[in-house]
Write a structure and sequence with these properties.
There is one protein chain. With 68 residues, the chain is of the alpha+beta class. The protein has a single domain, classed as 2-Layer Sandwich (Double Stranded RNA Binding Domain), CATH 3.30.160. Helix content is 26%, strand content 18%. The chain has one helix and three strands, in the order βββα. The protein has a three-stranded antiparallel sheet with strand order 1-2-3, with helices on one face. Strand 2 and strand 3 form a beta hairpin. The longest helix has 18 residues. 10% of the residues are buried.
């Protein structure tokens, strides 16, 4: 099953990893560690709450004006 991972830098260092299909969130010191932790957390979540994936979310960016 292919799922989506969104990784963002954490304020305290490392990365926060989020899976939008399930809502699972975790973190890790490196991208690789954050992804490994997300795979584990999502696998545990799906063992309790099976998911019928209907497609991947659309992930994009947008710009807002900077405050003057």
């Amino acid at each position: 099953m292919d799922l989506t991972a969104v990784l963002t830098p954490a304020e305290e260092g490392g990365y926060i990893a989020f899976n939008p299909e399930t809502g699972t969130t975790t973190q890790g010191e490196t991208i690789e560690a954050a992804l490994a932790n997300l795979k584990e957390a999502t696998t545990l979540y799906l063992s309790e709450f099976p998911l019928a994936v209907t497609g991947h979310p659309v992930v994009t960016t947008f710009t807002i004006p900077a405050h003057a």
